[in-house]
Amino acid sequence: MVKLLKFFAYMLFFVLALIYFLPKAALYFYAEQELQKKRLILSKEEVVDSGFSLKVKHAEVTFDSIESASVEEIDVKVFLLYNALHIQNIELSSMAASFVPLHIESADIKYTIFNPLKISGDALGAFGEVNADVNLLERSVTLLLKPSALMLQKYQSTLQTFQRDQNGEYRYVKTF
Hints:
The protein is an alpha+beta fold. It has helices spanning 2-21, 24-37, 149-154, 156-159, and strands at residues 40-43, 46-49, 53-63, 66-78, 82-92, 103-112, 118-125, 128-135, 140-147, 163-164, 170-175. It has one domain (2-175). It is built from four helices and eleven strands; from the N terminus they run ααβββββββββααββ. It is globular, with a radius of gyration of 19 Å. It starts with a helix and ends with a strand.
C-alpha cells in the first residue's frame, strides 16, 4: 500500500514538474508561426511564462493585413488533460462597428481529452453572452447568443443571421 502511494506521489510530482517546466513560450511562438500561415498575425505582445500558465499581454491581432482587434491579456493554461484559454478585454476594429458592439469583456475557451472532438467557449461583452461549441467530427460551429439590449436595438441585421428560439436566445449553426 505504501509503495502504491509512493508511486502515485512520484507520478503526480513528475506530471506537475513536466507542466511547470514545459517550454510554453516556445510552444506559443510555434503556434504563432502556424497561425501566420493562415494569415492571422499577433504582434506587439509581451509573453510571460508564469509557471503553470502562459500570459500574453497587449496583443494586436491582424487578419489578412487588416488590423482586427487588440487584446489586453490572454492566459493560456496547458494541463495535458484539460487546456484552457482565458482572454480579457478585447476591442474589435472599428470596421466591425456596423455588425457587432466592439468591446468583449472576456472569452473562455476549453478543451479536454475526455471529449477530444469538442471545443467549447463562452464570451461576455457588449453584445450579451454567447456560448460556443465546435464539433470537430461533424465540422460544425454552434453559437447560442443571449443578446444585450444594445444588440437587440442596434444590430438587428446581425441577429437576422441567427435563428430565434422560444427562450429569446439566438442560435447560429455553421459547418466548415
